[in-house]
Structure formats: C-alpha cells, structure tokens
Amino acid sequence: MRLWTQLLPLLCCSLFSSQGAESDSNFTLTVDNQHVFAVVDVPFNVTVTIEQVNWSDKPIEIFWESNGVYVFPKDELGHKIVFPQSGSKSQALMLEASLFGIFNLRFYKMDRNGKKTFLNIGQEVELVIKRENVQQNKIINIIFTIIIALALAFMGLALDMKVVLATLKKPIGPAIGMFCQFILMAVFSYLLGWLFLETNYERLGLLLLGCCPGGSHSNFWTAMFHGDVNLSCTMTFISTLGAFVFTSLWVYLLGTPLVGKTIPIPYPHIAISLASFTIPLLAGVAFKYKWPKKAVTLSKKVSRPFFLLCLITLPIIAVVTNIHFFYLCTWRHIVSGACLGFMGYIFGAGLAALLNQGRPQIIAISLETAIQNGGISLIVLSMTFPSPYSDMGILPVMSFFFCSTGPIMFVVYAVYLLGKKITFYLAKVDISG
User: Fold this and answer.
1) Are strands 125-130 and 35-39 parallel, antiparallel or unpaired?
2) What span, in angstroms and rounded, lies between the C-alpha atoms of 368 and 232?
3) How far is residue 94's CA from residue 92's CA, in Å, rounded to a whole number?
4) Do 34 and 56 touch, CB atoms closer than 8 A?
5) How many other CB atoms sit within 10 Å of the CB of residue 338?
6) pLDDT tens, 216-254?
7) What is the pTM for the complete model shown?
8) pLDDT, position 135
9) Which of 86, 329, 59, 362 lies closest to 206 in space, CA to CA?
C-alpha cells in the first residue's frame, strides 16, 4: 500500500507532463506549394505555415528531411524551423540542390529522445530540380553530328555499291535485322521496363530506345570487328526508313498508355537523321568513284584509326556531359539497360546463324540489332516531358550505352584482337612444324 502511495504522484506527473507535451504540438502544418520547381545550384524557398495553434510557453520546432542527399539548407537553422509565439506563423525555408532530379521533402517533430513523428500535410512536397544549362547540350550535339558525319564519309570509301544493290535485291540480312530491331527489341524493352523500372517516364525512355532504328555506331563497330560493312550500312538506311512506321506504331500502342497522353514523334528529326547518315556516305562513295586510288589509301590508313578515335572520344564526352548519371542511376537502370543490349547481341546473332548467314553477316546483324539510335529517344523524351522528368527518363538509356555499347565494347574488342593474334600464332606454329 505504501508503495502505491509513492508511485501514484509519479504516475500523475508523468501523465500530466505527457498531456502538456502533446498540447505543445497541437497545430496544422501547410506548405505553399506541393510541387516546387527550381534550378541546379540556385537557392529557392519553400514557405511553411502553421495554423490552429495551441500555443504554450515554448516555441514550436519543426524539422525537415529530403530523400535526396543533394538537397541541403541555405539558412542558419539548417534542418530546423522555429515558430515563436510572438512571431509570424509562416517561415520561408531556403534550400539549394547541387544535382538535378526529382526529390521529396518531409516534415516531422522530434521528442526529447530524438524520436521522429512525421507530420501529415496531405502529401510529400515534390522538388523538381532542372538543369542549369540546356544550351550546352545543343552545342555538344552539333559537335557530335560533325564528327559522325566525317566518320561516315570515311566509311563511304569502303562501300561497294554493287554489293549494296545485290543486298537490296535479296534482302535476307536486312529482313532479319528489321525483325530483331522493331519486333524483338521493342518487346524486350517494354518487358524489361515493367520488370525493373519504377516510373513511367523511365519505362518510356527504355521503350523508345527499343523502338529506334540502328545507329551509326553499329557501322563503326562492324568495321572494327571486320563484319559486313555493306550490309550494316544498308540495314541502318532501311531501318531508319522503317522508323517512320514502326517507331510510331510501337509508341502509339505501348508508349501512349504509359503516360496517358499523345507522344509526339519527331519525324523531322528522323528525316534529318536519315539525311545526315546518307549524305556523308554518298560523299565518300563519290570520292571513291572520282579518285579510286586515293580512296583506297585513305580507307586503309585513315578510316579505321579514325573510327577508333570516334569510338573512344565520343563516349568520354558523353560521360563528362552526363556525369549526373553516376549519382542518380540505380541497379534497376543498370540491369534494364544492360539486359536490353545483351539480348540484342545474342538474339541478333542467334537468328542470323539460324538462317545460315556468314560470319561477317552475323557480326553486322548482331551489332545492328543491339546498337540503337538513342538520339531519337532523347528527342522524344525532351518533347514529351520537361526537365528533369526527361532527364530521369534518360537514365535507362544512358545505362544501355554505358553497359552495352560503350566501355564494355572495348573490352570485347581487346579480347577479339587477342584471339586473332593467338589464332595467327598457332597457325604459324603449325605451318613451321
């Protein structure tokens, strides 16, 4: 009995103190805007207001946190907001983001033990951080176009128009490539998007990549691996023409339901891509027709080193200008992009071998299937979503390039050259033996 008489005052004090603490936090928190748009490295404000306050002697303290480590405070209080009883019921929270992207902002109370209690404000505040310099990308794209045009002119020196015309008359190789590019790759990209990616604009980015025609990089790698360059260039030309129909069809059937609105197809860009591919090639062919000896010399001594230079410098520039990729990408982006590329190589080569194509043709079809013209997907994303939504949609596309057609191709090429040297050495030993 004596024990209860001693504990009863303590229990009462604890009860009244907990009630007093609860009354201290009796208020409603609102934010001026649930979607805040800002630019990288430029401070911005989020206005927070408390209403229906049951004041006590102490000021009200509210804390905030973001799911992005690149969002940080710019005022003295850091992650804390203080509302004194005699002050304003609205406080401007000054923030800044060092990397573009889409982040969330949450508010919470903290008790004496450091336990967080998150406040219900309807929904989390969405921070939409845009690029700081969009014009820079346009300049880089122009530089890319000039370099690739020069490389395609060198490739035109090696083209045999008689072989190209013969391929068009009996288009078994191009038919295999068209089926792999516009049927298999489109289906693979759609399924991989739903299997690994979490947002619809990321799924749309991967789908657009799978629906795109072959890119000029496939022609360069075909030349480096001693594949059928004539077939590769013919397939790129035909698939770019086919993009007017097949890319539009897949985007209408699968892309529009993803985002719930009509997706613009950049027909002028596809036409420009076709022209920028065809005109330099024809210029190289014309040079070969006019000066055949000089064309042979340039093709043997300049073309292949220049292709290798392009394949090295262009990815480096892409890495420097898209350094954000390494901060924002997740394993989902990497796996989805890498799987799409590997499946393109495997199924393209497998189907070509199944239909009795030769080794140079198998190389050309495999590379043409896997290496897509990603520029078209980037244009569509920028026309469909504003920054940074379009930038986030690019992440699986960038993963595809880094993990399927970029650095890993140099590893494969090194193994290819090593295998050729070993084969040559073994053949030499057999002859001498």
Assistant:
1) parallel
2) 7
3) 6
4) no
5) 18
6) 778 888 888 889 988 888 888 888 888 888 888 888 888
7) 0.70
8) 62
9) 329
